[in-house]
Specification:
single chain; two-stranded antiparallel ribbon; 215 residues
Amino acid sequence: MATYLVNPKNDDPTHWLNPISGGLKTFEKNDDKLTKLGFVPIKVVDFVRDDDGNIIFDSLSTGEQFHDEDPRIIDFKVDPGTGTNHSGSNIPQITDMETRGDDAFSVAINTITAAQDPVPESTTSNRGRKTLIFSDGRQRAAKLAKHLSSASILDESRKLLFSLLQQEWYKSIKKKNRVLTEIYPWFALWCAYLRVNPFENKEGREDGTQFAFDQ
């Protein structure tokens, strides 16, 4: 929800917002009780008051109501905050990343894979865990596979970095040698010990090969 703070004397607020609890209440003038409770006056973007004082969606807004099941959901072509027009295909589309998008799909695949029982005799990084993914198009499948690989490597890098920071031998190193600018050799040493390489070779870059050499 896009909102902004307003002056109740000069502007026309639509709601009261509690910045600590996130509580939201319809704005009523001369309501000093909410002010004393820490609420501040705000205006929800593209919502206005009609002649009867009801808060309604502005008919001149760039947003549209496409969701018949819930008319409270508004899709904006133009971002109310930045003014960016997302109607063109060359601009990233506004999407709910909780339910759609490759990132959410990557999390789902990783969760499904991690939930499987490992194979004790397996020596692979996933310990024998496998997830089979079906797609209705080869091109889409190829792009998704590449994205899943990159997302998995990034996730692995985060885990490796935080596991390094928890090692007693790393904590015993002098503080001046444990700063971010000096962490690369320790990170390479830790990855070599675990026999992993969290980098990949991309077009024009040989990060994976270089990291393997540094190990």
